[in-house]
Amino acid sequence: MRHVQQEQYLDIPEGVTVQIKARNITVTGPRGVLNNSVRHIDITFVKVNDKQIKLLMINGNRKQVASIRTVKSIVNNMIIGVTKGFKYKMRAVHAFFPPNLDVRKDGSLQIKNFLGCKKSVVIDALPGVTIELSKAQQGELIITGNDLQNVSQTAASIQQSCVPRNKDIRKFLDGIYVSEKGTVVEDM
């Protein structure tokens, strides 16, 4: 069944500008500029006023109409990124061999001694993402950035690089896991 017209409204906070041209979205805020393209989704953006944008789809089926909410979430995450930023905390878990975590000068992470292995693993941070070791907690990483997709993908790459191979994962729970998700600028 075709839906004649579906629409969602997106509120723009103070101090943030959103520019949309040919479904290329540019969000500018106090923490920087983010760009994203949603050219693959047939959606219309209508500027209601300076504080609100309407996302509109005409004659879409059920799956196409569901993509309106996805695009709204993408733009909303971009707005949160340029105002507050995103922060993931990861903890190294080990039973016997503690992994050595080292942040290199180029921003990549080097993991040594995982499950007692001699081989070291190097994970590069995606653009706009910084990795640092926590000063308060040993074995904790703090991953920060403005783009949620890049921050979460960097955390996923770190977690997937530390999987016990050829071992029973019910017994060998060693690895580096996401312990906390939040924003860089904390809400009061």
Automatic annotation (TrEMBL):
Keywords: Ribonucleoprotein, Ribosomal protein, RNA-binding, rRNA-binding. One of its GO terms (cellular component) is cytosolic large ribosomal subunit. The keyword Magnesium does not apply. InterPro entries: Ribosomal_uL6-like, Ribosomal_uL6-like_a/b-dom_sf, Ribosomal_uL6_a/b-dom. Residues 12-85, 97-175 form the Large ribosomal subunit protein uL6 alpha-beta domain. The keyword Zinc-finger does not apply. GO terms for biological process: cytoplasmic translation. GO terms for molecular function: rRNA binding; structural constituent of ribosome. It holds the Pfam family Ribosomal_L6. Belongs to the universal ribosomal protein uL6 family. This is Ribosomal 60S subunit protein L9B.
